[in-house]
Amino acid sequence: AQLARKPDLIKVWGIGSGPEGSARVRDITRAVAAVARPAGVRVAVHATDLDIAEAALDGGADVLVHSVENAPLTPEFIAKLNARKVVYVTTLMVHEGYRDAFLGKPDLMAIER
Fold it and tell me: Which of 2, 35, 60, 113 has the fewest CB atoms inside 10 Å of its own CB, making it the most exposed?
């Protein structure tokens, strides 16, 4: 349904943690990629745990959004990112903007507008 809107990417988020969550991330990412990629749309995955980020890579993610917070990145993980040319987007602040966003009063910079 989202492809009709011609998005630049589709973001997968909020789909679990631990071994069961990792399997779910891999499977959902794979399913989204199977539909999005033929349409020329990249798949981004919200991945703040290393096991989730690895599962997203295994599922075919094109972009990993937010920094892995729970463990150092391994050389193998970095090699996989580089080999697949996956974009790894670091995030310095997330939670600080939630209050403003939920209140509908975000303090946006000119470039964000």
Answer: 113
